[in-house]
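Fold these two proteins, one after the other.
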Amino acid sequence: MVEQSIKGIAGTKVGYINAVHNLQKSLDKAYELYHLLLMLPVELTRMQDLRLDNARNKYLPTHEDLNPNLRFIDNRLIPILADNEDMHRYLKENPIDLSGKYDLLKSLLDNIVESDVYAEYMNSDTDSLEADCEFWRTVFRTIILPSDALAEALESDNVFWNDDLDIIGTFVLKTIRRIGVSGGNVISLLPQYKDDEDARFGADLFESAVERYEENMKLIERFVDARQWDPERLAFMDVVIMMAAITELVDYPLIPIPVTLNEYIEIANYYSTPRSGQFINGILFSVINYLKKEGVLVKN
């Protein structure tokens, strides 16, 4: 059953091409999410500016309406993001339109202005680019990234995005921190890939895993305890994760063994069954020891 499923993914030329295409599409959409999240502070600030302007122009404005605290809309991070050349270049080639996300933006903005984080920031005596950036980092960590409204919006827009949100969120936080300590100097946004090797990694790993299917499956079956597990009925996702892990162990000598183990066990805990992390750890540990004895795996 598992073998048929895996061969169904990439056992034919068409299946293989489609799988590679979907892999690249998922990576491209993750980079789009990075830009979308960085645009949120800009759009939320515009919405708050409009709210304040409407309050000033209502029929009987209060003193507070006429003299609002402008610290939120004057936050120094916002023009830096709005004017960033990398952002403009990306959006020119990959337009992202948040104008149709009024309900999402309103929900996020309401949660922000009602938060203790907002109140503390608006009343703080600390006034600097670093403080402005730290405010938005805190807003992302505590309000935006955990938002159910954001999760629902992402799920309706793209099937890849909710799975990508945690890791892309860390890249957004890193970018905002870099801006905060830049002293106002122009910084580049994070590239989609670190270098050409990084850009090829996903497709190369997938291709090698497909080519190594037979031998990797034999390794997995060798160390499956048939008294507890039926090799023919292993969870499909568990097999896919172990296939990728074994391929990375063998084909990428510069990636330390503990890094590979930790990454794939974490993937298993997130995507597969509650017992998968422990199960995969045990199988991979046995595979590693066997490959070392056979001289196939020489790294520590």
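Now the second one:
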Amino acid sequence: MGNLGLGEMLLIGVLVLIFFGPQKLPELGKALGKGIQEFKKAGREITDAIKEEPSDGAKK
């Protein structure tokens, strides 16, 4: 579950082309890329905050 084969990827690509048209694809790709970057950035910030926070055992 979760693995997409070549057939599924092609079907998704065709559906995206039908719904949005070729003019919108670069815009959609750019928006998707920015969304992924923001998600990764938020994940790194949370990870860094957890690493910087001292553990409860260190306070005693």
